[in-house]
Specification:
Blueprint (H helix, E strand, L loop, with lengths): L5 E2 L14 H7 L14 H22 L3 E2 L11 H5 L2 E12 L5 E12 L6 H9 L4 E7 L1 H6 L2 E2 L5 H21 L4 E5 L2 H4 L1 H15 L6 E5 L28 E4 L18 E7 L9 H12 L7 E5 L8 H21 L1
Parallel strand pairs: 1-11, 2-5, 4-6, 5-7, 7-8, 8-9, 9-10, 10-11
Antiparallel strand pairs: 3-4
Length: 341
């Protein structure tokens, strides 16, 4: 992880239209349960098709000049549902229902027994990525706090106990992902921000349980929601400074679209920070200089050796040409700033 002022993606990259029904995907708004109907390819050919699309996403990130890349999360219907639905204890026949962050009722996993990870879920994803690039690679997982908020509990009796059980399952997966060749493992925890009061009660406890005994570089992503799905965003984080006491090495935030006051990063003196400098709510591709200006602002608060610059969030809902253009602007804008350091 050596280097100064690196570039990275947060997680997802757009899936091609021939692979998924992108209109339906947007309508479903980051599904919490499996939704096989979004895939355009018959089941018998689906893994092969996902592999081909993943290889293309990896190559796009390399061509754009990004330092730390992912598999694009191409095989997932959403950032959370693939891992959560694979766990033992999740009812295979029935769903629960909650009110989501947008105020709509959504189906979610129903916890009807003890949570257990029966088998690795994303190990092959890491192996596939590692075989196709010599760059630093990152894989993402839904965090235990967020998964607990996105479920109906009919077994544990309180959300903290559920979160800690999920954290134990995440811990097993994280260790296997590093063993498979991951350089960075990132937990996606947007609900720490959405449910800040509960997060202050047991959010860090759940994260630390998920990362107990882990020796690789770990990251945690906080956001206000995909720009394509959430337009009105707060100008500050309700839960952020608390993460400085956690085991996680890197903290990822969105800053471009919400025009975040980056002084908040002073509350994370022990962490490397990933700062979003691409506005994913704006369909226009930023100029190299626009990106450079945003990076310079971040450098006023965080030294270059602790700064990684990224898109605000996952790029899943963007048109592919826009996503590629924005990543290329990210790399070129960072290069402008690096030449000044």
């Amino acid at each position: 992880m050596a280097g100064t002022l690196r570039t990275a993606v947060v997680g997802s990259y757009p899936q091609p239209d021939w692979l998924v029904d992108r209109g339906l995907l947007r309508k479903l708004m980051a599904p919490r349960v499996r939704v096989a109907q979004i895939w355009r390819v018959p089941e018998v050919y689906l893994e092969q098709a996902q592999d081909d699309a993943t290889a293309a996403a990896i190559k796009d990130q390399e061509r754009a000049g990004i330092d730390i890349i992912t598999d694009g999360e191409i095989r997932r219907e959403s950032y959370s549902n693939r891992f959560a639905s694979a766990l033992g204890g999740i009812d295979p026949t029935k769903h629960g229902e909650i009110i989501g962050r947008t105020g709509r009722k959504i189906p979610v996993p129903l916890v009807s027994g003890p949570i257990e990870r029966r088998a690795p879920v994303e190990v092959r994803d890491v192996q596939f990525l590692r075989e196709r690039t010599d760059r630093t690679i990152k894989i993402t997982l839904p965090g235990p706090f967020t998964m607990a908020q996105q479920a109906v509990d009919a077994y544990y009796g309180d959300t903290r106990s559920l979160a800690l059980a999920l954290a134990a399952a995440v811990n097993e997966e994280v260790k296997d992902l590093f063993a498979a060749g991951a350089d960075v493992v990132q937990l996606d925890e947007p609900w720490l921000q959405a449910r800040a009061e509960q997060a202050r009660e047991y959010g860090v406890e759940a994260i630390d349980r998920a990362l107990a005994g882990v020796t690789g570089t770990t990251a945690l992503h906080l956001c206000f929601g995909y720009a394509a799905l959430v337009e009105d965003k707060p100008a500050g984080y309700a839960f952020l400074a608390e993460l400085d006491a956690s085991r996680v090495d890197q903290v990822s935030i969105e800053a471009a679209q919400p025009q975040l006051d980056l002084a908040v990063l002073e509350a994370l003196p022990s962490k490397t920070v990933m700062v979003g400098v691409l506005d994913l709510g704006d369909p226009a591709v930023e100029s190299d200089e626009q990106v450079a200006v945003r990076i310079r602002r971040a450098l006023e608060v965080v030294p270059a050796e602790r700064l990684i610059v990224t898109p605000d969030c996952g790029m899943k809902y963007l048109p592919r040409d826009v996503a590629f253009g924005k990543l290329r602007a990210l790399a070129r804008g960072a290069a402008l700033v690096k030449a000044e350091l």
